[in-house]
User: Fold this.
Amino acid sequence: MKNRRAILFLTLSAMCGLLTAFAAPSLLDSPAPTNENKVPVVVAGSAAALGTEVPNAQPKLAHWPAELIPAGAFRDPNQLQGRVLARTVVQGEAILESALLPAGAAAGLDSLIDESARAVSVQVDQFIGVAGFVQPGSRVDVLSTFRPAGGDDSRANSVTRAVLQNVRVLAVNTRLERSGEASQEVQVATLEVSPEEAQVLAHAETEGPIKLALRNPKDDGQSQRAQLVLGTDVHDVRF
Assistant:
């Protein structure tokens, strides 16, 4: 009885082996999964900054499930010829119409500035606690350290105030400045401000170091109004 069971087991094992041997070639020859159920979408091949032309993002085609394609996506990279980025894009991100300036807009900061605004570049002492995280498109408060009018020249009487709030950053750069025999890196931020705010910013830069405080993009609140005297003019700013 035991011999019969052993023979049956060996016979079944041999049959399974033969079936596997015949099935393996057909499995190896089966075609790889295709994009049959996916659709083409243009994505960024590399990161690119706002204000630059789309080719800087090295657009390429990827295939995504149709239900994952966001509104405003493109199917052909040729559709993006001559277009300019309205915001920074990251590698692998689908390039959307909402991420682009209107057709015909030229590359550069001038196309990004609102009609009634100005772009002002200032040397920044540092980014408070967020060095490297302030990027084009960020919202910041501009902090200035100065001595109040009528005070003495002692450092103890210096105060720091947010002379501008909720300002949009257009660009952030690092440049080298020579001081004597040595060179040092200097942070420069280009901010979008109103003509009045441009005066406040220019005055604050002459008073002392300027720092940027990064804001939460959902926080558009402002603190109470105060006044800053610029020569013979009095301007309302928010401290």
Summary: The beta strands are 38-44, 59-65, 118-124, 126-127, 139-146, 159-179, 182-193, 210-214, 225-230, 233-238.
